[in-house]
Amino acid sequence: MVGYTPSEIGILFAAAPLVRFAIPFLFLKYFSLTPKVFNAALVLTLLASGFFHLFLHDFWLLMVTNIALGVGMSLVLPYVESVSLSYMPKESYGKIRLFGSIGFILVSLVLVKFLSSPTNAIFFLNASAFLTLIFGLLISQYERKNTLTKEPEGKSFSLLAHWPLWLSLFLMQLAFGGFYNFFTIYASSYPIGLGTYNISPMDMTIYLWSFGVICEVFMLYFQAPLLQNNLLSVLQFSVAITVFRWLLLASFPQNLYLLFLSQSIHAFSFALYHSAAIMYLYSLYSNKKLAQQFFAGIAYGLGGFFGAMGSGFMYEVSPQGLYLTTTFITFISFSFLWLEKKRST
């Protein structure tokens, strides 16, 4: 709305995932994700959201602001994940995590109708950051009171000890780049709308997104019995069915019923996968918070960055070829999980 080119927007969006990837390495040697650091990250997130008002029209200052926001969020989210898992049974995790999915639905279906100007969007960002600060401080205060009764987290941490797992996590989110960044364009470019009911392809694409998130919420609420099984096997199943999902997208972009079937698999390829990955890493490493930081950094940070950049080039060559490529990448991700399971037995 303020005149940035697509390439400039792409660079601005790419900055935060790269920061997300880099930050955990600092905490590997020099820092610990303590309540004090968490509080500082909450304040940084709020301040960065406020600077959007000042620097919206200056590309470089806006990039610095977005990086600052990325630094804050790269610390806030892993801290909350690890604290949640330390206080609740794992079967309850999904019922907490589903509130994030409900927030996504509210943003995509409700908030979008009010984003008539950049100012409206930034005010929403400010309000969200402020509420995050308030509730984050309450979490921090509760955690600080209970720190003395908890066992301290271990200092040792190794990525190489489980390198097939980390490669799989990276590749899974690399493949998702084609979905998150181009599914709307891909689906709405084909005549999938129900003309009899005057539903346009774009409106139908919105319904597809919403249906996928509803399936995600359903899985998060009822996934507890599935997570009682071997978590590595749950991850394998989630990745395997995601291979099928991308193959459906590549092969049948005009078949509305198969597109809805593909979106229903989001319950497994995001909801169940994310929960199983969070819990498996929590059980695997003694340094719980650092494990969550690296999960966010390597998977959603580095994987998200290369997924977004690579999918753009692939989509220009062939839209369907993009999803065939993501099918292949996800299959490789499954293969690395198979190797990780073989090494752990």
Overview of this structure, please?
This protein has 345 residues and is mostly helical. It has 2 domains: 6-149, no CATH class; 160-344, MFS general substrate transporter like domains (Growth Hormone, Chain: A). Helix content is 79%, strand content 0%. It has 12 helices and no strands. It has helices spanning 6-29, 35-55, 59-87, 93-110, 118-146, 163-188, 201-222, 231-251, 256-264, 266-284, 288-317, 319-344. The protein is globular. The model has no long low-confidence stretch (mean pLDDT 86).
Which residue ranges are poorly predicted, with pLDDT under 50 across at least 5 consecutive positions? none
What's the assembly state of these chains? single chain
CATH architecture of the largest domain: Up-down Bundle
Rounded to an integer, what's the Rg over CA atoms?
20 Å
CATH superfamily of the largest domain, by name, is MFS general substrate transporter like domains
| Number of strand segments | 0
Range of helix content: over 70%
Secondary structure tally, helices = 12
Coarse morphology: globular
Q: Give the class from helix and strand content and strand pairing.
A: mainly alpha
The CATH topology of the largest domain comes to: Growth Hormone, Chain: A
Strand content: under 5%
Q: What would CATH call the class of the largest domain?
A: Mainly Alpha
